[in-house]
């Protein structure tokens, strides 16, 4: 039997006043972008909800609750195949704070709410911007490859 592994990842979409919360990394998160949505891998023994709350707090200093599942996507071509769960989250409390970056290979250097109309300047795809501007149509569904949501 082949040794096969798959990794679950969670990503949070926090929107306030037509702006979306993003984190900036020291290295590119894809070929064109340093900015991304907060999130990360689900650790052994964690629920998706717990992982989402933990990742948001670790990366942004904010406590959140999950409002709804937006999309499930996959990225099987990675060295470890990945399933991505994209959640809409709501801020409960906390203050935006840069993380310690002790455990990350790609450090976070900035965190900010970015107006929707500025996403293009940060090299987000038109596919992703269309989803944001249209309040994530077809939410709650499997969308196939992660590129289908423009990330």
TrEMBL record:
Keywords from the named record: Hydrolase
Keyword Hydrolase: yes
Family: Belongs to the Nudix hydrolase family.
Gene Ontology MF, one: hydrolase activity
Domain Nudix hydrolase: from-to ranges: 5-135
Named cofactor requirement(s): Mg(2+)
Name this polypeptide is given: NUDIX hydrolase
Keyword Disulfide bond: no
Pfam families linked to this entry: NUDIX
């Amino acid at each position: 039997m082949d040794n096969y592994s798959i990794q679950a990842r969670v990503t949070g979409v926090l929107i306030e006043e037509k702006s979306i919360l993003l984190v900036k990394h020291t290295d590119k998160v894809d070929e064109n972008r340093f900015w991304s949505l907060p999130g990360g891998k689900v650790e052994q023994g964690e629920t998706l909800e717990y992982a989402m709350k933990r990742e948001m707090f670790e990366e942004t200093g904010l406590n959140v609750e999950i409002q709804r599942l937006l999309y499930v996507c996959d990225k099987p071509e990675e060295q470890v195949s990945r399933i991505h769960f994209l959640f809409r989250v709501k801020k409960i409390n906390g203050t935006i704070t840069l993380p310690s970056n002790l455990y990350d290979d790609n450090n976070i250097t900035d965190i900010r709410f970015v107006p929707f109309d500025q996403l293009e300047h940060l090299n987000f795809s038109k596919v992703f911007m269309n989803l944001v501007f249209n309040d994530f149509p077809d939410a709650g569904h499997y969308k196939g490859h992660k590129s289908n949501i423009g990330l």
